[in-house]
Amino acid sequence: MSRRECRELVVLVLVACVSAIPADAALASFAGVEGKIAFTKVGAAPEIYVVNSVDAMPTSLGRSPIVGSSPRWSPHGTRLVFVSERDGNAELYSVSANGLGEERLTHNGLPDLHPSWTEDGVEIIFQRRTGAGAEIYSLDAESGAATRLTRNRQADSDPAAAPNARWLVFSRRGDLYKMTLEGKRVTRLTRGRAVDSQPAWSTAGARVAFVRTAGPDSDLYLVNANGRGLRSLTATSGRVESSPTWSPAGDKILFRACTSASVCQLYVVNADGTAERPLAGGAGVDGEDPDWQALSHRRDWDADAEFFFLPNNRNPSPDPWGDTTWSYLYSDSFAHDPATYHLLPEYATFDPNRESWVLSGFVNLLISGVRSPQLLVLHPWGGRVQGSGRNAVLGWRSPIDGQVTVTGTIRLPGLGECAVGSGALWSVDKGGTVLQSGALPTAGSATLDLPVSISRGESIYFVWDAGWDSLCDSGALELRITQ
User: What is the phi/psi pair of residue 266, to 5°?
Assistant: First the structure.
């Protein structure tokens, strides 16, 4: 994993009653766009699942569920740190937002728990040991070096790093404390007979949400970062609340509430204590240790470059933020019509530099070849003369609403295995509407710079047609979509 968040692993993968509290969103250092919510699904083994805040269908992180718990998003939403006991001991791991690139971060015989990223994504704050021996540590996410921050006869637990400052908050003897990331300037934030735990910084670092347990119930509270302004956020009899986490915009708090050992649900409440409602439209989503992903305000989907860094055999495939965007398709009609587009079913690796999606028993329809600059090579072998009409299609399904720009270059590469024919046709489509199209003669090329207004779930397609001959006209494509 890279040294700083801005240089994190780049992967492509084709296809919370108070009043008059100021909003945190304008001060947020983390990105303010709401992404997915990661949580632990409890079963025979805990697994990490994700759900959109308005979508009722949780899905596992990655093709196969990631075995782990306590998932925490990195500052820019491209990675998760989590805890796994797969080797019999709780250790820290990380994985990209699309479920790829899993990496073990700690290796020792002591349990490592409750991870939390620092604002730069360079360090991970966590708890080592349990019970009276629990202490707070800092982990260099690149080197794996761990530094002990607390040395106390009482347990120090539940650490959480601030999103915009060199501070962390933690629990000690049932009260909340804060200190610097270097373990200095320890300051008490709360006191009393109740037990305060599970602190979570607001997006701007001005407040801390936490769980206060007094008797059989647990409720959510807020306190300012200076220890003042203690306020109750929820007060619901007969309900145990836990795991508060803030929305990226800082205006909502997500938490878990249980009315019995087996009846639990995730809820969202405004930061002023109003408008509590179940997550995802009341669909009954349950999960432990939820965390809300923050996304960049602007994103970049680079098809031709990112594909080679981490060859991927999922179709459709997730992008670096875990959204299913890219897909390899073929067309069974002469018309550029999404109704005739189908996912390519089979993936093959020929050598370290060549991967291909194929239609079994027919032809290779999309091949990648590592060159400089890196590009995608589309092979709609067969062409219309052979009667197939099966165009090679690269599809991108939008995870956002708004304006994007499609840029890139398409050219005839003149590969040795394909003779250059009389020309080839290309088209950029949104749904069944042609946005831009053209034909390439021998050694020809074309550039794209196309603004497109799009809604979440709509698709943009790049269609490559072999033309009217049977000479296997190949297209070399560099394609980028930016927000």
Answer: -85, 135
Quick one: 37 and 70 in the same domain?
A: yes
Are 291 and 304 in a shared domain?
no
124 and 172: one domain? Answer: yes
Q: Residue 293: is it exposed, middle or buried by C-beta count within 10 angstroms (0-12/13-18/19+)?
A: buried
Q: What is the span of the domain harbouring residue 398?
A: 300-482
Same domain (yes/no): 117, 42: yes
Total domains present in the chain? 2
Same domain, 200 and 322: no
- Shared domain for 98 and 50, answered yes or no, is yes
CATH number at residue 172: 2.120.10.30
Task: Report the C-alpha gap between 134 and 121 in whole angstroms.
Answer: 24
Could you read off the pLDDT tens digit of each residue along the chain, which spans 483 residues? Answer: 333 333 332 222 222 222 222 333 323 334 568 999 999 998 889 999 999 887 778 999 987 889 999 999 999 899 999 999 998 999 999 999 989 889 999 999 999 999 999 999 999 999 999 999 999 999 999 899 999 999 988 899 999 999 988 899 999 999 999 999 999 999 999 999 999 999 999 998 999 999 999 988 899 999 999 999 999 999 988 899 999 999 999 999 999 999 987 789 999 999 999 999 999 876 789 999 999 999 988 899 988 766 654 556 678 888 889 888 988 888 877 777 898 888 888 777 776 666 677 776 555 556 555 455 567 778 776 444 444 557 888 999 999 999 999 999 998 765 555 555 556 788 999 998 999 999 887 677 899 999 999 999 999 999 988 666 656 677 888 899 999
Within this chain, do residues 47 and 112 fall inside the same structural domain, yes or no?
Answer: yes
The beta-strand segments (E) located in 15-86 are 33-41, 47-52, 59-60, 66-67, 69-73, 79-84
Q: How many CB atoms lie within 10 A of CB 202?
A: 28
pTM, 2 dp: 0.84
Q: What is the CATH number of the domain that holds 415?
A: 2.60.120
On the CB side of 404, CA atoms within 13 Å amount to 25
